[in-house]
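Good morning N.,

You mentioned wanting to compare the apo and holo forms, so I went ahead and generated the holo version with dinuclear copper ion. This is what I fed in:
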Amino acid sequence: MLGKKKLLVGGLSALVVGALLAGCPPKKELKTEVGTAEVAQKVYVPPGKYDEFYAFLSGGFSGQVSVYGLPSGRLIKIIKVFSQDPETGYGYTPETKPMLMTSHGFIPWDDTHHPELSQTDGVPDGRWLFINANNVPRIARIDLSTFETTEIIEIPNSAGNHASPFITPDSKYVTAATRFSVPIPQKDVPISSYAENFKGTLSFIKANEPGKMDVAFQILVPGYDYDLAHCGKGPSYGWCFFTSYNTEQAYTLLEINASKNDKDYIAAVNWKRAEECIAQGKYQEIPATYYHNYYDEKKHMAFSEVKKSVKVIIPKDCPGVMYYLPTPKSPHGVDVSPDGEYIIGGGKLATVIPIHSFSKMLKAIEQKAFEKEVDGIPVLKYDAVLHCEVPKPCLGPLHTEFDGKGFAYTSCFVSSEVVKYDYKQCKVVDRAPTYYSIGHLMIPGGDSAKPWGKYLLAMNKITKDRYLPTGPELFQSAQLYDITGEKMQLLLDFATIGEPHYAQGIPADIIMKNVKKIYPLAENEHPYAVKAEKDARVERKGNEVHVYMTMIRSHFVPDNIEGIKVGDTVYFHLTNLEQDWDIPHGFAVKGSEDAEILVMPGETKTLVWKPKAPGVYPFYCTDFCSALHQEMQGYVRVSPAGSNVPLKYYTGTSTAQK
Ligand code: K7E
Ligand code: CUA
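and this is what came out, ligand included:
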């Protein structure tokens, strides 16, 4: 750990330096420790040489995103998104709390399923990662130069934002849809009035301008469960496809009542047509309250705005905006081939994998090959849109990715395997077991127009006997396969954080070249920033005390503060004056009810503290920043309410006080 930090050991003797380093041997010693130089060579792998890809895995119920290097499977980062993070103070500090504001108030948690990289011309471009929140419907944008969440938009008229945030090839929109149909707008009705009162929405969210995410429009649809999505590309550009189940419209014991129909639907939405209808005024503006939160990287602060209405298209008022494609048995995943022609459904209860043809779909629409209409939405004839059913693939097919060489790979939950097939010929060519119960799978670029197609990552729900037991809960895992040959080859498995659902992968160099190393201090516009130690100060405004504090290896200014009183609210505004890569400082004060904060070079963050009893309280740096990190500490003296101890503060000698 110390190897990468700059050591400030000035005039200390070699012996003292040695002692300071005890427990944190520099890299050279580490190599000898693990054995021969050869072994050490294998342990030390230069980034971008050995790890060819970044993999972004959703955290499921952790609410975050975890980042791994592939093919090593090494965890390199947890990106905080929808859950408060005590490691950094995300969601605790006044700067970041607005990010988690919603129409339901401050929400410190959510359930993330589907990361989706931004694309240019159908290819992941490494600018942003989007991810959905299921429970309180939201979509977040993560900036991949900082690996920080910079924007969150709430989705109104929605519940269970699962078919989200799948992207159009130009990053114009990301999708959102209701997994749970609900009364729209919400009202107090009997649950048994489901068929009459419950509806779904398919939403298109503007995604290509940072800081300007917004609900472009929603389509009001029959009250089914809309499950997953993927958008068309190439010839099918302008369309997005959403699976639905529960066309039975059951509202209790769905495992039986929503599994009756032989086929449910994939909804094919023509969003170009929707744009025309919006332009022609064929929509209703419906009142809806929802939050849009964004992070200003210069002010180092998040802001919220409340939106009040949304444009809703009723399908019968906008003919041609959508069609239903019958698809066997409660489909789950829907995936579009790199050439944009094939739409593969994952019938989780089906015994076949149904593949629809986009060109056949267009022809069927032209010839009006409809079997019926639901609420103004034509249902196309199954045979008229079907390319083929892949025979005897596996049990419980869920999700599909592509290798760019004409093969599709589908995860099969029930039979715990990946099946590889030629999707034009509809012929299975290989299968590989997974350990166990695979959900999603991911090939870098595997849902895009140009898959990189070298590795396949399986994300498994169950590990059973594969790892050391850890009490009642055994974690989830991922497995990496080499898919360059005819046969898939299992390379390794590794533990995951939370329960990853989907993932995205991208070549390392695309991201590496844009990674930000510091926040320039000169650009820091935080209202409580101080850019030099001489400007550090403490100001009282009634019961509020604002501490403008700096941090640099290895001290705080000021590091002694007196004249704080019980009943005060103390705001420690910390600016990290460092301008070197990877030198954060942390801050914690005894008795603080919030998490610590970690302040990046050039950044300002605030910790709020309400001391409850007189005494002297220590504070310290929490991040091992130099050999003298343990010296990076200070004291606050707290006096009784109403005492007349004057406010003073200093660092160094007590004569430096004001
Ligand atoms: Cu299949 Cu939420 Cu995409 Cu889990 S979902 S696996
Ligand atoms: Cu600063 Cu440790």
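Residues 596 and 654 are 28 Å apart (CA to CA).

Happy to go through it together on a call whenever suits you.

Best,
F.
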